[in-house]
Amino acid sequence: MSRKTGVDWEKKAKETLSANAFGYLSGGSGSEVSLSYNIKQFDRYRLIPRVLREVSLTDTTTHLFGSSIQAPYLLAPIGFHTIVHEAGELASARAADAAGVPFIQSTVSSYSIEEVSEVMAVADHYFQLYWPSDDDVRESFVRRAEAAGVKGLVITVDTPVLGRREIDLSHNYFPMDEGAGMANFLADPVFQARYLSPTMDSAEVKQKIQSILFNPSLTFKKVQQLIKSTSLPVIIKGVLHPDDAKRCQDIGAKGIIVSNHGARQLDSAIEPLEVLSAIREKVGNDFPLILDGGIRRGADIIKSLILGADAVLVGRPYIYGLTGGESGVMDVLSTLKEDLEINLKLLGATSILDCHHDHLKRLER
Ligand code: HOC
Asked: What span is annotated as the signal peptide, if there is one (predicted)?
């Protein structure tokens, strides 16, 4: 999409970042079939406008988890922002704050929960949790998130192990090699006491983090225990099956992110839009669903909302915008908002509540 500033941020990211960093951000797992279908999923639907409506004023605001947000999208949790720009998550969070949309901070961010929390004045700050295999570190992360005043916890459940990302394997690349993504661990008192020693170098620290980062033993039961033990609302990210969605709802999750992790985990994982309606049907109308994957334009957002989402995540577009720092992310977010507003008017809608099934047709071919 051509940006308000005229900058094509993906192109700029490709030109300015190292091949390793751009490969890490842009790549998917395995065959990358899901990567291409996450974009194509929206092309299976066409919008049918209604005409001669009064659309001089459009309103993109919506409500999510008790907050009013300026547009129906949140900044997806993406790790390691300092491989893109030295201001990293601080710049992305500030841009989200200026746009009035939530920022979901990754566990593997280059600034800590506390540091990001400090720069967010207006918009909601969520913390994404990769559930460490060390329960005491996990507990400490949750308590720190509570103390920092985050709005909610986003628990990612599609990563019992890391997906097989051939581009990174071919570069032998992992962003922590650049010192990125360690801040939450380095700042954690439990992690410090249990895993760090004064003589350790960065490679050893990285190895310690990696040794506990993922947890292939995570189950619904453990997530339910966490839900009961925290004051924060828990949103579960990485669900693609309606029965799993229902189970998340039954154990007390406050919402779900329907996601194939930007096509970076299970090779050939189904595209989220394909399962969204069935998940909506299973969990009922009053349960927040957020669609993640392939959102590039206002029309993608409209299609997602019609098919059952309350909001969507924006991922790669903003991380490419971060090559321009805070103002680059702001450019991406304001362009997306403008595109959404224009297309709402052209659809004959004055707000996102006006987008209905009779505006949408799924193509048969
Ligand atoms: C071993 C750490 O969600 C991604 C992110 C971060 C994964 C953490 C990798 O790359 O999909």
From this structure: none
- The model's confidence at residue 5, banded by pLDDT at 50, 70 and 90, is confident
Q: Is 78 assigned to a binding site?
A: yes
Between CA 43 and CA 63 the distance in angstroms is 27
Give the residue extent of every domain in the chain. 9-42+65-332
CATH class of 9-42+65-332: alpha beta
132 CA → ligand 1 middle, Å: 13
Arithmetic mean of pLDDT, 26-52: 97
DSSP secondary structure string, 219-258? -HHHHHHHHHH-SS-EEEEEE-SHHHHHHHHHTT-SEEEE
How many other CB atoms sit within 10 Å of the CB of residue 32? Answer: 19
Active-site residues, by number, are 261
pLDDT in tens, 69-97: 999 999 999 999 999 999 999 999 999 99
Residues with CB under 6 A from ligand 1: 79, 108, 162, 210, 213, 261, 264
Instruction: State the distance from the centre of ligand 1 to the C-alpha of 45, rounded, in angstroms.
Output: 31
Mutation test of ligand 1: which of 25, 104, 130 has the most ligand atoms closer than 8 Å to its C-beta? 130
ipTM at complex level: 0.95
261 is in an annotated binding site: yes
